[in-house]
Design goal:
This protein has 10 helices and 7 strands. The protein has about 220 residues and is of the alpha/beta class. It has one domain: Rossmann fold (3-Layer(aba) Sandwich). It has a 7-stranded mixed sheet with strand order 1-3-2-4-5-6-7, with helices on both faces. Helix 5 links the parallel strand 4 and strand 5. The longest helix has 15 residues, at about 65-80. The protein is globular. The two termini are about 30 Å apart.
Length: about 220
């Protein structure tokens, strides 16, 4: 898995690495051109960035976890990074959560923009149950990644100091908004941002800027657990 690296100048203790994961139809170049890295630099956040080329094939081949850990996260840890965050848009949001579930000790936090959390039928099943708290997943098959992820989110406790922090931003008119609303119920209100908008770049860039400008997120990017 390749990536575009952007390292902030200067040496600093406990440098933060932010791994950005694109959506299914986007590339690392799209994320750079849309100004996501520039937004960090404009705010002088001491965060190094790698925009990973985590394209759809990795998910379809079920090699996403292995490649992200072997090609991106493990080399970063070998270089001394102990504070690694994931940021994902749409499918990249699901990828961020899948990785955090599988390797929670690797990740300090995740930032999700309009995450894809499951197919319509799966999400309707949770909605009918009355939300993640009331939903009962039952026995989950080994290859049922959607239900396994949702079951993990059901058990997620933001107050657990060992659990990766989760921040969420989404457009209220997004086709995946119902799924985001289910997730938002599991998170502290200060970690959620919802604005008018759909599943598109104009909405995501506003959400990204808004989350970066929230004091608690800026502090989270600077403090240890």
């Amino acid at each position: 898995m390749d990536g575009i690296y952007d390292i902030t100048p200067g040496a600093a203790a406990e440098r933060v690495l932010l791994v950005m994961l694109p959506g299914a139809k986007d590339s690392p170049e799209d994320m750079v051109e849309r100004g996501l890295v520039r937004a960090l630099r404009e705010r002088a956040l001491p965060v190094d960035v790698v925009v990973a080329d985590a394209h759809l094939d990795y998910y379809l081949e079920r090699s996403f976890l292995e490649r992200l850990r072997h090609d991106i996260v493990a080399p970063a840890q070998a270089k001394g990074y102990t504070r690694i965050w994931l940021m994902g848009i749409s499918l990249g949001g699901m990828g961020s959560l899948v990785y955090a579930r599988a390797h929670p000790a690797d990740i300090e936090g995740v930032i999700l923009l309009a995450p894809f959390l499951g197919t319509r039928g799966t999400m309707e099943e949770v909605v009918r149950a009355g939300g993640l708290s009331r939903w009962q997943p039952g026995e989950i098959k080994v290859d049922d990644d959607e239900h396994a992820l949702l079951a993990w989110l059901k058990s997620y406790r933001s107050s657990d100091p060992k659990a990766p922090k989760i921040y969420l931003g989404y457009g209220k008119d997004d086709r995946y908004a119902p799924a985001s609303q289910l997730l938002a119920e599991r998170l502290p209100p200060q970690r959620v941002m919802a604005i008018p908008g759909g599943h598109d770049w104009p909405t995501w860039t506003v959400l990204w800027a808004g989350l970066l400008d929230r004091e608690h997120l800026a502090l989270a990017a600077r403090r240890t657990r």
